[in-house]
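haha ok so turns out i had the wrong file open the whole time. this is the CORRECT one, sorry everyone. sequence first:
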Amino acid sequence: MNNQDTNSGKQPQVAVVILNWNGEKLLHEFLPEVIATTNPEIARVIVADNGSTDRSRELLAREFPGVECILFDENYGFAGGYNKAIDRLDYRYTVLLNSDVATGAGWVDTLYRFMECNPDVGACQPKILSYNSADKFEYAGAAGGFIDRNGYPYCRGRIFDTCETDEGQYDTDIDIFWASGACLMVRTDLYRKAGGLDTAFFAHMEEIDLCWRILLEGYRITAVPEAAIYHLGGGSLPDSNPRKTYLNFRNNLLMLHKNLPDGIRGRKLFVRRLLDTIAWAKYTVILKFKFAAAILKAHRDFAKMRKAYTTHPKINLLAARPDCRVNILTSYYLRGRKHFSDLKQYPKQ
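then structure:
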């Protein structure tokens, strides 16, 4: 029997949505295991194809005829693709799952039970390990995401480019600031209420922005390391691509502009401009001119795009949450605190 079929007669409560764009090889490698390890009584695996021009659709029709597919006529980006897919679905929970993720038995059951038992949790993520080095945390999310006082993301298990070895040191549930878009379970009605992923971001940091809005709605976000997945990473844009630098810098500015209240927003953005200038100077000195240009373009485009956001929250989460008191730049580069457990500020394990 195909894993997608069930004789229980019960409607699954979870939609596991995999957004695909020209990912034929990834689907061939990862989708069979996702199907095999996803309990059909709880969840249904759905592939949303974002206007692929490779043979992804032929592969799905040929090798996975039992998998529900949503087909778009163009690439709407990570944010737009997920929003359009979720608009067509009606499940209590949605999992945003990258196409380059390997899952194990019971992964979705664990996340589902946690959400059912914790109605004040709006979203959660599993422990995210590296597909190529299973004892290492993976860059995109590790054991839960945070942001520091200046809006820089970091993770429990990964700070900047330092990914820790998983030795069980972060095997406790913990409230976090953001859950990784590599594998994010969210209450579907809350996803819609919060506005979904911001399509202006196109890709990168859009899940942090969404989680910020979920927190502003009064919900918690939690890392649930009892569930674990294995992420290949780099499936969209590699670090060597200046386009990724552009999106990260631009979207970080947009995120701060959107989600900070009057009175603090201008100061935070001024600090970020100074810090981004240092990053631009670094790229210039080491002759990576395309990356330096990407930062300049990010700031120019931010100046235009910010005008679209005219309403701002009254709550400053960066001040209200103790986990945002960290200055991750000075902790990492000046004090040599490369691991999450080395941080002297909250959160502590």
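The chain has eleven helices and 13 strands.
again sry for the mixup
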